[in-house]
Amino acid sequence: KDVDPMVARNENASTNDSTQFTPTPQRKYRFFQNVEVTSEGVAIVRLDNREKKVNTLSFALSDEAKIMWNSDIHNNTDIKAVIFTSAKPDTFIAGADIFDIQQLEDKTQLLSYIERELQFFQRMKSKGVPLIAAIDGPALGGGLEWALWCDYRICTDNPKTKLGLPEVKLGLLPGFGGTQNLPALVGVQNAMDMMLTGKDIRPNKAKKMGLVDLVVAPQSLEKVAIHTAKGLVDGTVKKSKPKKKSLLNRFIEDTPPGQYMMWQQINKLVQKNTNGNYPSPFAIIDCVKYGLAHPSGNDKFKHEREQFTKLAQTNESEALIGIFDGMTAMKKHQYGEDAAVPVKKVAVIGAGLMGAGIAQVTAQKGYEVLLKDRDDVAVGRGLSYMSDNWDKKVKRRRMTKFERNKNMSAVVGLSDDSESWKKHFSGADLVIEAVFEEISLKRRIVEEIESVTPDHCIFATNTSAIPIADIAQGARRPERIIGMHYFSPVPSMPLLEIIPHGGTADCATATAFEVGTKQGKTCIVVKDVPGFYVNRCLGPFLVEVSALAKDGVSLEALDKAMKNFGMPVGPATLADEVGIDVVSHVASFLSNADLGVRMEGGDISLMQNMIGKGWLGKKSGQGFYSYNGKKKTINSDVKAYLKEFSSRDLGLKEKEIQDRMVSRFVNEAVKCLEDEIIADPVVGDIGLVFGTGFAPFRGGPFRYLDTVGVDKYCDLMNGFAEKYGPQFEPCQLLKDHAASGKKF
Ligand SMILES: NC(=O)c1ccc[n+]([C@@H]2O[C@H](COP(=O)([O-])OP(=O)(O)OC[C@H]3O[C@@H](n4cnc5c(N)ncnc54)[C@H](O)[C@@H]3O)[C@@H](O)[C@H]2O)c1
């Protein structure tokens, strides 16, 4: 969700086109304001991309930076110090421009591009005057690397200020000297934490770890920077030095046995978190180790850019960039910004797991929230859920106490215990319903709410499976009814499916999109069919779990196979987390829906019988696994039951287990495209990566098919169809692409 290091394709399209910038007497540069030099010889370089809201490091900017430096600064002996800052409000440099990398057919050209960029930074340093970075807003990726080449860093305490090297999230590494300059400044452990997770560092933490030297108010940034520059020139301010390490950190980072232990630990952690599927964290480790072994000279930078260039050529990086691109594209309003109903007050009905989560993410974004349940006890539970979550954030310093209190006071708890709820609802602009999954109840709620809310109010339902058209049937304002399908747990799941039914007006879709995006969700609009998109794809996948169990595959082997494929958890663990009853409900609902043969081949009685035995998953302490001890173990009763359940043991190998599971999933995604349930493959990829955790390094089902080869995949499925039955038959669109060789 937080991936905003680099600005994607659409954002940058015009930065890289041939738009000619014509200098005027007022403005010499496209990416910089004219350099200003104070009477004391402090040059101020203000980055300011004329065509964009944010500054990004692009090939074009780099070329111009060199010209600017050479003509305005390098030979000007009056200049005694240089400040780099941004003329844009709330943003320093948001990262390097990914579009540049994507456009290069021959990625090895990156080597010379990065080398030229480094030469620029080194030339900057060679002037021998103090360089100061004055940062307000994000300094990410290449932006922070620029600041790392400076002698002194000042940032503001603006809530928008964050510093980080998030390249790992795109399968890359910091290539402008970051893997070398960062450890030298903040220590190896801090640097590895930042580079391997890609996390943002907030101003106070940045100061504490020595990433910046000063934190100031945004209004005084430039003044303090100029004052500091003068101090660095006359010696009253000292250049920043790495923070003094504690005795323990000196042992860990600076002695051979300490380093040995540290690298072992880091490797173990990375291996565990990536399952060996992501090359970039290992390349980052390699660059830092190389730098420690070759501290002087430029070899370490050469090694870094070679590693960067290698990563830029991997499928993994291409896939992760594809997801990032898709996510950025999806944030753009496609349903008419003006069409959206202006929303100030959002009412949530049902303060259960989903309702409380929806209320939480809504209040966090500054909306007034009404949270209603049947009685005060249920509302109280919902309110506690939110306040507990916010308390945890305060504890982790992810939120201030003030923000927590502000959020809490934005939520009004209401129940049927008092009639006053109706008065509150008369001011609601959007209602999101998250009561039990019963059509009669949902219809009753629609009727009740329509009678107390204003005519412009949009009614959204968070149903997992009931067709939206059925819920809208008999409504007074069906055109204002829409599905907003959130995923559990709402605060952390990044996806929202928006489901207009046949008669939904554009204003309702636009409103759902607007609010969902503001809630921090990536929104995909999908057709009103059973299971919508994500659950529809999960249906055949889950059926295959029981089919494989019948063929003698153990739960451990199944979970391991899918984790190795790149899923965050195996299907048995997933079912336990979601709840066996919920999964079984979805599976049997979809079995009775319109998927036909695609839901066959398994035996959903597996989970129905488990429900009968009270094995509901994690919530009941027992599902496929037992959760009674500290570590989850396979439930021995389930093991015995599965033995009974299985009818044969085919001794299947891991690859076949993976292919059987994944092909059911992927085929359904393509069928959804064929049936226009999703608009295009990008929506399909984003939906399954964000909604189910489909191996992100594979980029989603469509990119996966393109990588493996559609024709090869069709052959694989046809083979399975012959061996196991028609549930494996590839859908028409898959066959068409296989025949024509067309990629998704
Ligand atoms: N749990 C999930 O993973 C998930 C995911 C997506 C969608 N959903 C859907 O979200 C909805 C809610 O699911 P949940 O998991 O939060 O259920 P839940 O049982 O935790 O919460 C439902 C809440 O609705 C309240 N409620 C029932 N009747 C009401 C009424 N007449 N007025 C006001 N409140 C009423 C209940 O008291 C309860 O607090 C369901 O439609 C479900 O299918 C669930």
UniProtKB/TrEMBL annotation:
Q: Where is this region: Disordered?
A: 1-23
This protein's pathway reads: Lipid metabolism; fatty acid beta-oxidation
- Superkingdom of origin organism: Eukaryota
List all membrane-crossing ranges: none
Q: Do you know which InterPro entries this protein is assigned to? A: 3-OHacyl-CoA_DH_CS, 3-OHacyl-CoA_DH_NAD-bd, 3HC_DH_C, 6-PGluconate_DH-like_C_sf, ClpP/crotonase-like_dom_sf, Enoyl-CoA_hyd/isom_CS, Enoyl-CoA_hydra/iso, FA_oxidation_alpha_subunit
**Mind telling me which Pfam families this protein's record contains?**
3HCDH (PF00725), 3HCDH_N (PF02737), ECH_1 (PF00378)
Q: Which residues form the 3-hydroxyacyl-CoA dehydrogenase NAD binding domain?
A: 345-529
This protein's record includes keyword Lyase: yes
Could you tell me the EC number(s) of this protein?
Answer: 4.2.1.17
KW Cell division (keyword) present: no
Q: Where is the composition biased (Polar residues)?
A: 11-23
3-hydroxyacyl-CoA dehydrogenase C-terminal domain sequence ranges: 531-627, 658-742
Q: GO CC annotation: what is one? A: mitochondrial fatty acid beta-oxidation multienzyme complex
EC class name: lyase
UniProt similarity note: In the central section; belongs to the 3-hydroxyacyl-CoA dehydrogenase family. In the N-terminal section; belongs to the enoyl-CoA hydratase/isomerase family.
Q: What is this protein called?
A: enoyl-CoA hydratase
Give the species this sequence originates from.
Answer: Ditylum brightwellii
